[in-house]
Structure formats: structure tokens, C-alpha cells
């Protein structure tokens, strides 16, 4: 499975790393969907032939689906109700999640290669180096926060004795899941963009200076660099601007099918 990535500078040294929206999620086969009930989960986990990591994935996906259902219920609650206010609080908290975390979460664990689209004026080695950097930092940061969130789950679960909804518990539970997915995406991305350097004895790296792209001789390369003149024209700054205009960002997001809100976050985010 090849995953497409879009990389471009958005403000000074701040670069945007984003993946086009995946519209195929609704078409996922039923056999690959997570269990919908505790009974189905218990049956799936107790299958002896299932690896331990696959069982952990089933449990995580089950919890994530339940949180999604609960979130949809809050979103559809009547205006000015307590549930609607909790939903508003959740929206505010989600808006503070760093865009790099959202990007790393979007890297599918089934990815076998990445296709990187970037402005043609940028050096391919620099783009790949920045990708490796964000992936390496992601493995360190999200592993730390993942274990930290796990320690907070028992503490926040004690608040269930209160008559009010246990918002801290569900938020910590969501953050645990989010850091887990971001950690997986970081490890997968780092593996893919570092594959060439790890197999330098058997793979030969070739650099095409005319197109400023990189690749290595392999039956199935784990990364492919695609310089884009169209993207280069869109990110060119005018009138001594330090960052891209909102119009340019919206246009880029429309052409490459990116989430505009997540892309705009990169203007003020350092990681």
C-alpha cells in the first residue's frame, strides 16, 4: 500500500506535513472491521491463532469505536444541554492537538511505501531529512506521552464516583489512544523513509538532479520523491510575505485534498 504525502513550507522554517483525506474508510470490508460488541471482542481475542499484537489492536479499535459513537451522541445533543457543552469543550481541546500528531496518526500501519509530493525548488534530500526528523521525534515524544497517559487512566477513573460526566477520564483515554496511533505512524514513517540507509549495502541510491528527486533500485521502493511545479507556484511568496496567504492555503488544500484546519495549524506549530 502506497501512502501519498504532501510537504511544503508554510511559514518561515515551519513546514506542513499532511496526507490527503482518505475517502475509502467507509468502503472497508466487514471482515476487517473491529468487533462491535463485548461478546464479539471476547470471541476474537480468545482465538489462539491470533498474535498478541493483533489482539491488542482489536481492543484498541473497539475502544476507539465506542468513543466515536459517544462523540457523535454528544454532537447531536440539543443546544444548551450539558452534553452539548461537553461537546464544545471537546472541540476546544481537539483544536489544541498539534498538527504533527494528526499527521503521524494518519500514516496507515499497512503502508509499504510513501510518495512524497513537494515543491520542485526544494532539495529532495532536505525534504526526506525533514520527514525522518519528524518521524524520529514522534517516536520519542508520543512514546513518552503514551505511557504517561496510561498512568493517568486509573487516577481519572476514580472520578467516576462524582455525579457529573467523567470528562477527564474520557479525555485521557482518548489521548492514550491518540498517542498510541501517532507512535505507530511515527515508527512506520521512520521505517519507510530510512529503509534506503539501512540497506545501503544491497540498495543503490540514485539522484536525478534534473528533476531533483531521489529513488533507489528496488522492486518495490519504500519511498518515492515527486517534485511538483504546480505546488511550487502555489507556495511562492509575494510582496515580502513571511507566510502563505489563506487563499493559497485553501487552494493547496483543495487541489491536494488536504484538511484545511489541520494545515493552518502548522503556521504557529513548531512540531
Question: Any overview of this molecule?
Answer:
It is built from 10 helices and 6 strands. The chain is of the alpha/beta class and 271 residues long. It has one domain (2-265). The longest helix is centred in the middle third of the chain and has 34 residues, at 124-157. It is globular. The model is unreliable at 26-32 and 197-218 (pLDDT under 50). Keywords: Membrane, Transmembrane, Transmembrane helix. The chain crosses the membrane at residues 145-174. Residues 202-213 have a biased composition (Basic and acidic residues).
Count all strands and give the number: 6
* Shape category: globular
Protein structure class: alpha/beta
Q: Could you say how many structural domains there are in total?
A: 1
Q: How are helices and strands ordered from N to C?
A: EEHHHHEHHHEEEHHH
Main pleated sheet: 4 strands, mixed
Q: Write down the Rg.
A: 21 Å
Unreliable segments of 5+ consecutive residues: 26-32, 197-218
Strand arrangement across the biggest beta sheet? 2-1-3-6
Strand composition percent: 5-15%
Residues in helices, as a percent range: 40-55%
Termini gap: 27 Å
Layout of secondary structure:
Blueprint: E1 2-11, E2 14-18, H1 38-45, H2 52-75, H3 82-95, H4 99-105, E3 113-119, H5 124-157, H6 167-193, H7 195-198, E4 205-208, E5 213-216, E6 223-228, H8 229-235, H9 246-256, H10 260-265
Helix pairs in contact: 2-3, 4-6, 5-6
Amino acid at each position: 500500500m502506497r501512502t501519498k504525502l504532501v510537504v511544503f513550507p508554510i511559514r518561515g522554517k515551519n513546514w506542513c506535513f499532511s496526507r490527503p483525506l482518505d475517502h475509502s474508510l467507509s468502503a472497508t470490508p466487514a471482515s476487517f472491521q473491529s468487533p462491535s460488541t463485548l461478546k464479539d471482542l471476547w470471541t476474537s481475542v480468545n482465538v489462539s491463532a491470533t498474535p498478541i499484537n493483533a489482539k491488542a489492536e482489536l481492543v484498541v479499535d473497539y475502544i476507539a469505536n465506542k468513543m466515536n459513537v459517544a462523540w457523535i451522541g454528544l454532537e447531536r445533543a440539543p443546544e444548551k444541554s450539558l452534553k452539548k457543552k461537553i461537546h464544545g469543550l471537546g472541540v476546544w481541546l481537539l483544536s489544541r492537538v498539534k498538527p504533527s500528531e494528526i499527521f503521524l496518526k494518519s500514516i496507515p500501519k499497512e503502508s509499504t511505501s510513501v510518495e512524497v509530493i513537494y515543491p520542485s525548488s526544494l532539495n529532495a534530500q532536505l525534504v526526506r531529512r525533514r520527514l525522518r526528523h519528524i518521524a524520529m521525534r514522534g517516536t520519542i515524544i508520543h512514546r513518552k506521552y503514551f505511557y504517561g497517559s496510561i498512568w493517568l487512566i486509573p487516577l481519572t477513573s476514580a472520578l467516576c464516583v462524582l455525579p457529573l460526566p467523567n470528562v477527564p477520564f474520557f479525555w485521557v483515554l482518548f489521548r492514550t489512544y491518540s498517542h498510541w496511533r501517532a507512535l505507530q505512524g511515527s515508527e512506520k514513517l521512520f521505517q519507510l523513509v530510512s529503509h534506503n540507509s539501512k540497506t545501503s549495502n544491497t540498495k543503490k541510491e540514485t539522484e536525478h538532479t534534473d528533476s531533483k528527486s531521489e529513488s533507489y533500485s528496488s522492486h518495490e521502493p519504500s519511498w518515492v520523491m515527486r517534485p511538483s511545479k504546480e505546488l511550487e507556484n502555489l507556495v511562492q511568496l509575494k510582496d515580502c510575505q513571511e507566510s502563505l496567504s489563506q487563499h493559497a492555503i485553501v487552494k493547496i488544500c483543495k487541489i491536494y485534498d488536504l484538511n484545511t484546519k489541520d494545515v493552518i495549524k502548522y503556521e504557529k506549530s513548531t512540531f
